[in-house]
């Protein structure tokens, strides 16, 4: 689960930092060079990936909160008085 979250968050950074992969004019889209429309495509795509990562993280946190505690571990909250 956490690997999927990391991939969702890292994909936009890798895609934008690897300039050599999109530093070209062709193919154009409605007259816009590839360099520009590729970057603009990543704006909504990054938002979708960030929301996906957040939802996966929330699901993971809920699963960890409801999971039974390991046997022999001390209760959370410190020592009792």
Automatic annotation (TrEMBL):
Domain of life: Bacteria
Organism listed in the record: Streptomyces asoensis
Keyword set, alphabetical order: Membrane, Transmembrane, Transmembrane helix
The name this protein goes by in its record: Integral membrane protein
A Pfam family reported for this protein in Swiss-Prot or TrEMBL: DUF3311
Keyword Transmembrane helix: yes
Record-annotated membrane-spanning stretches: 39-57
UniProt-listed InterPro entries: DUF3311
